[in-house]
Amino acid sequence: MTTKPVAKLIxxxxxxxxxxxxxxxxxxxxxxxxxxxxxxxxVMACGNYHEALATIANxxxxx
Length: 63
What we know:
By secondary structure, the protein is mainly alpha-helical. It is 59% helix and 6% strand. It has helices at residues 16-29, 33-44, 49-59; strands at residues 6-7, 61-62. A two-stranded parallel ribbon has the order 1-2. The relative contact order is 0.25. The model has no long low-confidence stretch (mean pLDDT 96).
């Protein structure tokens, strides 16, 4: 099992596009660029903000 990289989202600008960017950077730094692309697509398909946040948290450890 691959460990989730840490993404510092708490206290960041809460705009979902910003959060996608921060989480994607954490995944890429963690050597998981394919997961970054997959996560971004899944988040964009979410129906609401809370679902989008939950999806991001499936990919990264939120800090």
